[in-house]
Design a protein that fits this description.
The complex is a heterodimer of chains A (273) and B (185).
Chain A lengths: L2 H5 L3 E7 L2 E8 L2 E2 L5 E4 L7 H12 L11 E5 L5 E5 L8 H16 L7 E4 L8 E6 L1 H13 L4 E6 H13 L5 E6 L2 E8 L2 E9 L4 H15 L9 E5 L13 E3 L10 H7 L4
Parallel strand pairs in A: 1-5, 5-9, 10-13, 13-14
Antiparallel strand pairs in A: 1-2, 2-3, 2-4, 6-8, 7-8, 10-11, 11-12
Helix pairs in contact in A: 2-4
Chain B lengths: L18 H37 L11 H21 L3 H8 L7 E10 L12 E10 L2 H13 L3 E11 L8 E10 L1
Antiparallel strand pairs in B: 1-2, 2-4, 3-4
Classes of the chains: A alpha/beta (273), B alpha+beta (185).
């Protein structure tokens, strides 16, 4: 966390999932006691427009907590598509980089991603980059909501990278891989020196622990070097308590609950920024 | 400390922390130091310039004179210059140079040293001038020999026979001639 963050005022952190809005007010490296609350949303079709409408209703409340604070928005993986983009000299300039990323996304995810907004990490020159794309209307809707309600938008980020920082904050960054289980979605990432270098993401309609093990096995068949990984940090953001431990290489990471109700609240707070 | 993956859709400057904050602090300290140095250098430069201005000689305004006064001053300077030139005349050397050898029988009648050449005025100028010599010789041959003798003298820059005539009033009918010599020291 930067010195500026330590010195500046509070931040309203909002976790956005298809079925829920989670709000926590962060104060530097901590959070404001009893600031966390949730808004449940009935949204069987995972329509982000319903979530934006719920967020708008919340932000328009005159005496809500966190009014006027800068906001940090964390998005469910269901609305984000991640991929590793190979290095290209086109990434040296913004215009050519945007075209290059669009072509990569269209090649992998189809023409439907033609107008998507795509962000990348800050990997160095010549290194592959982790990219995250989402519908441009969703991104603009979030930014417009923040602007209309007098919030400075500090960040809009996929929950996966935020979850990784939470894992590193709690258990160190010396992991070789981690997995994030969200409601109806699984993401597994391979790590090198603290950076995500490979990613696998999929929907999960049935029991996620079983599906996670299978997904790891399938991914290992495609990437044989994963077989050398002996431990995968697992962060459960489903809100469901696991009855049994998962088989190796998975090892659950227990986030300190403090006074927050769930691991998702903790991740939303983004203490590891 | 390694930098963890971050995927932010909101473009913003990198957070100022860690080594960035260190570099910022170092940069601010260097900037402050350079600013102090610059200020002290400016003060020193200003003081040196003021000292230089005070040390420069001040031009003295020339006194304003009327045209009459100016002419009087010029005439006075001319008189002084003539007097100085007269005092500087090498009379002894001139007379010695004019003396003919024994085989040239010439009588010097008059010597006029009042003539002056151009460029010889002023205090400190090299003395030179025009010398007019009036002499008599018994024959034309002796007259021309004497002129040739004077022309060879190193003291004279030039020697001209201005006029010559036969003095009919004298029983020996001598040649009377006038020479003009430009002398130099």
């Amino acid at each position: 966390m930067s010195l500026i963050d330590r010195l500046t005022a509070k931040t309203l952190c909002i976790g956005v999932t298809p079925a829920q809005l989670t709000c926590v007010i962060r104060n530097g490296h901590s959070f404001v006691t009893e600031s966390a609350f949730k808004i449940d949303i009935t949204n069987e079709n995972n329509d982000w427009r319903l979530v934006l409408a719920a967020l708008q209703r919340y932000l328009e409340q005159p005496e809500r907590p966190g009014a006027g604070l800068p906001i940090s928005i964390i998005l469910s993986s269901q609305w984000c598509r991640m991929m590793i983009v190979p290095w290209s000299d086109a990434m040296l300039k913004d215009d050519s980089m945007a075209r290059f990323l669009q072509s990569q996304y269209m090649a992998l995810y189809g023409d439907g991603t033609r107008d998507w907004a795509i962000a990348t990490d800050d990997a160095g020159y010549g290194q592959p980059r982790l990219a995250c794309g989402m519908e441009r209307d969703l991104l603009q809707g979030l930014q417009q909501l923040a602007s209309d309600n007098k919030h400075a938008c500090q960040s809009i980020e996929s929950v996966v990278s935020v979850a990784w920082r939470a894992i590193a904050d709690v258990s160190g960054s010396e992991h070789a891989a981690f997995a994030v289980a969200e409601p109806r979605w699984l993401t597994i990432c391979k790590l090198e020196k603290g950076r995500i270098t490979a990613v696998h993401s999929q929907a999960c309609d049935s029991a996620w622990p079983v599906e996670l093990v299978r997904a790891w096995q399938r991914w290992t068949l495609r990437l044989p070097e994963l077989a050398a990984i002996t431990q995968v940090a697992l962060l459960n953001l489903t809100g469901e308590a696991m009855k049994d431990d998962l088989p190796a290489p998975f090892k659950s990471v227990l986030l300190p609950s403090h006074e927050l109700q769930s691991a998702y609240d903790f991740v939303t707070c983004d203490r590891g920024r | 400390m390694m930098r963890l993956t971050r995927l932010n859709f909101v473009s913003s400057a990198a957070p100022i922390g860690g080594w960035r904050m260190g570099m910022l602090v170092i940069g601010l300290i260097a900037l402050a130091w350079a600013g102090l140095r610059w200020t002290s250098q400016q003060e020193a430069t200003a003081a040196a310039e003021a000292q230089l201005i005070s040390a420069q000689p001040r031009s003295v305004a020339a006194p304003v004179r009327s045209a009459v006064q100016q002419r009087e001053l010029e005439a006075q300077a001319k008189v002084v210059g003539d007097a100085v030139r007269q005092l500087n005349l090498p009379i002894g050397d001139l007379i010695k140079a004019l003396q003919p050898p024994k085989d040239i029988r010439v009588a010097l009648l008059a010597l006029d040293v009042s003539g002056k050449a151009s460029g010889g005025e002023g205090i400190g100028a090299k003395p030179d001038g025009i010398l007019k010599i009036t002499a008599e010789a018994r024959t034309a041959q002796e007259m021309t020999t004497y002129v040739a003798f004077l022309d060879d003298q190193a003291l004279f820059r030039s020697m001209y026979l201005i006029k010559h005539e036969i003095n009919a009033t004298s029983p020996e009918k001598p040649y009377r001639f006038l020479l003009e010599a430009q002398w130099r020291e």
